[in-house]
Amino acid sequence: MDDILIRKMNPEDSSEVVLIYTAITGIAALESSFRRILEEQSLKDDSASLVAEIRGKVVGYMVSYILPGGFGLEKSAWIAMLGVNPKFMGQGIGDGMAREIFRFYREAGIKDIYTSVRWDSTDLLSFFKTLGFDRSNFINLHKELG
Questions:
Q1: Half-sphere exposure of 98 (CA within 13 A, CB side)
Q2: 82-99 burial by CB neighbour count: b if 16+ within 10 A, else e?
Q3: For 52-66, what is each residue's pLDDT tens digit?
Q4: Rounded to 10 degrees, what is the CA torsion of 19, 6, 99, 119?
C-alpha cells in the first residue's frame, strides 16, 4: 500500500497502540502501565519504536530497544512488541516497520537483532522467518513467582 506512513512512535500514539493490542489478543492491557512503557520507549532517541499510519490512523506498532550487553552478548537490539490491527494484516505493514528498524540499527552500528516468540505462535514465527530471523543461542527460561 502506498499510503502507509512509518514513523517514530510518540507518546500520543499510546492510546491507539493499546487498542490494537486489545484487538489482537482479546485481552485488555493494563492500560496505565502499558501506556507508560510505550510513552517511555517513544521518547528514547537511541531506540527504534515505530508506528505505521494510514490516513492519520495508527494501524501498527513495533517497539524495540538497545541492550548494551550482557549474557555474553555485545551491544544488540531487541524487538519487544509488535502488532498490526487485524483489519490491516497481510498488507506489508509489519514488514515495513521491521525494515525501518533494521535500517535504524544498521546505521547505529548494531549487528544483531533478537526477539522472542511463543513456540505455538506459528503466524508470528513465520513472519520473523520471512525477515531472516532464525533460532539463536538463547533458551528462554521462565519462573512463576507464587
A1: 21
A2: bbbbeebbebebbebbbe
A3: 999 999 999 999 999
A4: 0
